[in-house]
Design brief:
With 290 residues, the chain is α/β, with parallel strands linked by helices. It folds into two domains: 2-119, Glutathione S-transferase Yfyf (Class Pi), Chain A, domain 2, CATH 1.20.1050.140; 130-289, Rossmann fold (3-Layer(aba) Sandwich), CATH 3.40.50.11810. It is 47% helix and 11% strand. The chain has 14 helices and ten strands. It has helices at residues 10-14, 16-28, 51-68, 77-89, 95-105, 120-128, 130-135, 152-155, 158-161, 171-177, 202-218, 229-246, 256-263, 268-271; strands at 2-6, 32-34, 72-74, 117-119, 139-141, 145-148, 182-183, 223-226, 253-255, 287-289. The strands form three sheets. A four-stranded parallel sheet has the order 2-1-3-4, sandwiched between helices. Strands 7-6-8-9 form a four-stranded parallel sheet, sandwiched between helices. Helix 12 (229-246) links the parallel strand 8 (223-226) and strand 9 (253-255). Helix 3 (51-68) crosses helix 4 (77-89), helix 6 packs across helix 10 (171-177) and helix 11 (202-218) crosses helix 12. The longest helix has 18 residues, at 51-68. The protein starts with a strand and ends with a strand.
């Protein structure tokens, strides 16, 4: 299996451990990731300001992946949602679509919709498969309880993203349970992380975050697990900032390839375990040798 890896803007700058852990996990299970230095921003930052600019940026990435002859694998759920929206939009016919195709042609590109946009979790669940993942596990967790955070942009709009059931998703939970950990249910499981309003209304953003983390902890979770850089930044960086203000730690967070990578025998340095701002090193105490 081979995919064009779409990192987006945030991960290389602010959540490097997500990239290094994801690369190591995929290498371990035999999935090849191809880098393309010509990939641009997914368009998400301007999606609600200039729709045409958003579509032009997103569509160029689709065309460049198609030129490689590969499906895109995105790590960021905002990038995933943006690229899926552009993918869905370009299936229709209209003046804007023709304008975008013309702009792509001026760069020697074309998009015919021959390849798909997938998220990291989707690739693991649908393409690699749970049985294949389990066949590579060297250590499994025992007694570890995880609160999964699905994120908004993967689930909605569901007809566009086609990631999972938007009301009762289970894909992420099953991937967590493949490691031996228990994926717990909690009331705010599908709630927003709070990141979209950070910088606009910080108090509201932190309140949303605090309530979600407290709810997960109350339900018995040892850690929260995310698969999006924006969400992880909110649960790690912003929660750390909140802790410096009030001294309360609700629930430490890690990204899924860190959780899985430890089970695959990948070293902590490669997984960036010590790069998380809130200490997650105690998670290794839940590991049992297979």
């Amino acid at each position: 299996m081979k995919y064009a890896l779409f990192l987006g803007c945030n991960i290389p700058a602010r959540v490097v451990q997500y990239e290094t852990a994801a690369r190591a996990v995929m290498r371990k299970i035999g999935v090849q990731l191809v880098d393309n230095r010509d990939f641009k921003c997914c368009g998400y930052p301007v999606r609600n300001l200039d729709r045409k600019a958003f579509l032009l940026s997103a569509s160029e990435n689709l065309a460049r992946a198609e030129k490689l002859g590969l499906n895109i694998m995105a790590l960021c759920k905002c990038c995933f949602g943006s690229l899926k929206e552009a993918e869905n939009f370009l299936k229709e016919e209209g003046d804007v679509q023709e304008e975008i195709k013309h702009a792509l042609a001026q760069k020697g590109l074309k998009y015919e919709g021959k390849f798909e946009v997938k998220h990291f979790l989707s690739v693991l669940y649908h393409d690699v498969g749970l049985d294949e993942i389990k066949s590579h596990i060297l250590k499994s967790y025992k007694g570890l309880k995880i609160a999964t955070h699905y994120g908004c942009h993967a689930l909605r709009p569901s007809k566009v993203t086609q990631f999972d059931d938007p009301i009762a998703p289970s894909l992420f939970d099953k991937l967590v349970e493949a490691t031996g950990a228990q994926s717990i249910d909690y009331n705010s499981k599908l709630d927003c992380c709070g990141a979209p309003v950070m910088g606009v209304n910080d108090d509201l953003s932190m309140d949303i975050t605090a309530k979600k983390l407290a709810n997960g902890k109350k339900a018995g979770a040892d850690y929260l697990c995310a698969a999006c850089p924006y969400c992880q930044l909110q649960f790690d960086h912003v929660q750390n900032m909140m802790m410096s203000q009030n001294g309360n730690k609700a629930l430490a967070s890690l990204v899924y390839p860190q959780l899985l990578g430890l089970c695959l025998g990948i070293d902590e340095e490669t997984l960036g375990i010590h790069m998380n701002q809130i200490d997650i090193t105690e998670i290794t105490s839940f590991l049992n040798q297979e």
